Amino acid sequence: MTNPTLFDDIPEQPRRVLKLRHGVFLDFIPETEVDLHRERITAALPVMGPTSWFARDSAAVLHGLPLFRADLDLVHVLHTGGGHGQLRDIAHTYKTPKVPPNTTLVDGIPVTTLARTTADLMRRNYFGPALALADAALRLGAPRGELLREVTGGRGCRHSTEAVRWADPRSESPYESLVRAQILQGGVPMPELQVALYDEDGFVGRPDFLWRRYGVVGEFDGETKYTTFLKPGEAREDVMARQEIRQARMQRMGLRFVRWGKDAVHDPCEVTASIRALIGDVVVDYEMCPEAHDYRRPRHRR
């Protein structure tokens, strides 16, 4: 019988779970696709050249932008000059003209700027996601003027310009932005965003949308609402109970409610129909370009 202590002096080999690139492995499985993509970025960093930057979906992960139909299986790298060597098997690489794009560092990692990253993604999405990206970029500190410069000309420039024009940093989630996109496309009167409401007992809350003239409140019911607002020791049911009390107080103020779930914001008709059921058939012409009403992804412009 083999002596079980015979090989105790041999160091244990690291456990290889997931290959990131040649010679680099993870010994654990990240909780989310975004966490895994961050690991891919870290693994790719040592083999990047001096004129390479993380871009598109990878840059969105680093900047904290919302992701729509993101490709996170490989990292996305923008480069100038020569080849990209060891990046070939682990990255989508994009050649840029001799003039480098607007770039910066995020935690020491070379990346396209927040405005450039947002513009790259807006051009490749339709109006709803583009508005959500523009909202998030403003909320994260990108100047509106810089965003407008980055979307000038080229593929998707017209609907992206409309998205920057209507972007509002007060929108707190991508789904709220998608609701607002349908409001714009459907000609529904624009609500006030995140208005603080008070009754005789004090602060009641800040609904996502308020049509003050019509006495209507609109809210998106996402799962994050029931996790973000958790206090220590609380369960999801506690948050739901507080939300019910909050709604009852607003209703005593004479406000009517309309709510949407995740599926509703992807239906071009459901959101606007539910609002019109409470406020009537008022129509506003926002004079947006035809491309902002197109639900297809933008085509390449020749």
Unreliable parts: 1-8
**By helix and strand content, what is the structural category?**
alpha+beta
Mean pLDDT: 87
Terminal CA distance reads 75 Å
Major sheet details: 4 strands, mixed
What is the helix content?
Answer: 25-40%
Q: Give the DSSP E fraction (strand runs of 2 or more residues).
A: 15-25%
Q: How are helices and strands ordered from N to C? A: EEHEHEEEEHHHHHEEEEEHHEH
Salient structural properties:
302 residues, alpha+beta, 4-stranded mixed sheet, 3-stranded mixed sheet, 10 helices, globular
Outline:
The protein is of the alpha+beta class. It is built from ten helices and 13 strands.
If you had to describe this structure to a student in words, what would you say it looks like?
The structure is a single chain. With 302 residues, the protein is of the alpha+beta class. The protein is built from ten helices and 13 strands. The strands form five sheets. The protein has a four-stranded mixed sheet, sandwiched between helices. The chain has a three-stranded mixed sheet with strand order 3-4-5. The N and C termini lie far apart (75 Å). Residues 1-8 have low confidence and may be disordered.
